[in-house]
Amino acid sequence: MKKPFVNKEQLEKIVAEYATPFYLYDEQGIRENARKVMAAFAWNKGFKEYFAVKATPNPRLLEILLEEGCGADCSSYTELLLADAVGFKESDIMFSSNVTPAEDFRLARKLNVTINLDDFTHIDFLEQVADIPDTISCRYNPGGHFQIENNIMDNPGDAKYGFTKEQMVAGFKKLQAKGVKHFGIHSFLASNTVTNEYYPVLARTLFEFAVYLKQETGIAVEFINLSGGVGIPYRPEQEANDIMVIGEGVRKAFEEVLVPVGMENVAIFSEMGRFMLAPYGALIATAIHEKHIYKEYIGLDACAANLMRPAMYGSYHHITVMGKEEAPHDCIYDITGGLCENNDKFAIDRALPKVDMGDLFFIHDAGAHGFAMGYNYNGKLRSAELLLKSDGQVEMIRRAETPQDYFATLDCTKYFD
Ligand SMILES: *Cc1c(COP(=O)(O)O)cnc(C)c1O
């Protein structure tokens, strides 16, 4: 059973003040989970979780993660500006971009953040548009399939990211010749993994690769970045990852591979987004229409422009109709938004209790890659974001867009005089 982090009475109070749709985040859940992550990797002196800003780019939430000891992983110019504004400094920021524009690299160098290069050709590009720093990381793509035992988890050979194995060796030598003193490696090989094995298997691969790089180049990396990909159970029947088991699995690989070759000072980094925030954010919407044609439809005041994962990937997001948790789930509905797009459905053929107009919907696990992927199609406006604070108070951490925001990039003056 997935349980909302608010009850109906609490939510009704919030809705009396803030109109739906809106995103609601749970500060206490965020903090408790972040502390578990720190505890799981406490065995590693240099451990740092660089929260993937793209997952939930809200400064108030970034501030909470900063307070919990996280860094920030940025992938663009504006994400760098945001992380800098919140107070992440220099090596608290990882810049893991790809197809990087010159001005992004210039800003990354100006802020003196740790750059994680996506490609061999970016070495010369970075030197031309800015300069080569003392510390650098390179993103590794081993190609082929990424497997855990006999399960193919993902297909790195088909992914646009990273250096090949040969390029990693050549890149390290080239960077060393250009004066780099401190090296790291990074790899992201599978997304939304719901198994405690992903990080340990990835870690072992990277640890062995670090040993190989040392043999080939004489360079001992100082940090290894396991990146993102640790998933969450979107479906109620899935079993959640246990971060303590994951941390222990990485430790075991560390002890077996790195410690025997004298690399026990290597720092472990992560760049989790989904695992840090997805369960601690929900999209709250109101049922505003019901429709009885060839199927039964419930229409919400939110749409795919607020949460596009179901429309884009066919993703499952669990839904609680507030106050009807215990009622029989004996109605089958498509739950839709109002875009002129038939894929604008939060759920298809979902068994729910009988819905009445005005019912509040709690769409679970939307705290990462939710609001952030929003868009303005059909002139739909982005919603507000609210924070349910640890003390029970609610703080608006982003106001809803207005028509003025939607028109802000146009010069409409000639239509108005
Ligand atoms: C998206 C991304 C992440 C975060 O991924 P999650 O699946 O949200 O953990 C981390 N690092 C990089 C480079 C990414 O692109």
From TrEMBL:
<keyword id="KW-0210">Decarboxylase</keyword>
<dbReference type="InterPro" id="IPR002986">
    <property type="entry name" value="DAP_deCOOHase_LysA"/>
</dbReference>
<feature type="domain" description="Orn/DAP/Arg decarboxylase 2 C-terminal">
    <location>
        <begin position="22"/>
        <end position="367"/>
    </location>
</feature>
<keyword id="KW-0456">Lyase</keyword>
<dbReference type="InterPro" id="IPR022643">
    <property type="entry name" value="De-COase2_C"/>
</dbReference>
<feature type="active site" description="Proton donor">
    <location>
        <position position="340"/>
    </location>
</feature>
<dbReference type="InterPro" id="IPR000183">
    <property type="entry name" value="Orn/DAP/Arg_de-COase"/>
</dbReference>
<protein>
    <submittedName>
        <fullName>Diaminopimelate decarboxylase</fullName>
    </submittedName>
</protein>
<dbReference type="InterPro" id="IPR029066">
    <property type="entry name" value="PLP-binding_barrel"/>
</dbReference>
<dbReference type="InterPro" id="IPR022644">
    <property type="entry name" value="De-COase2_N"/>
</dbReference>
<dbReference type="GO" id="GO:0009089">
    <property type="term" value="P:lysine biosynthetic process via diaminopimelate"/>
</dbReference>
<feature type="domain" description="Orn/DAP/Arg decarboxylase 2 N-terminal">
    <location>
        <begin position="30"/>
        <end position="277"/>
    </location>
</feature>
<dbReference type="Pfam" id="PF02784">
    <property type="entry name" value="Orn_Arg_deC_N"/>
</dbReference>
<dbReference type="GO" id="GO:0008836">
    <property type="term" value="F:diaminopimelate decarboxylase activity"/>
</dbReference>
<comment type="similarity">
    <text>Belongs to the Orn/Lys/Arg decarboxylase class-II family.</text>
</comment>
<dbReference type="InterPro" id="IPR009006">
    <property type="entry name" value="Ala_racemase/Decarboxylase_C"/>
</dbReference>
<feature type="modified residue" description="N6-(pyridoxal phosphate)lysine">
    <location>
        <position position="54"/>
    </location>
</feature>
<dbReference type="Pfam" id="PF00278">
    <property type="entry name" value="Orn_DAP_Arg_deC"/>
</dbReference>
<keyword id="KW-0663">Pyridoxal phosphate</keyword>
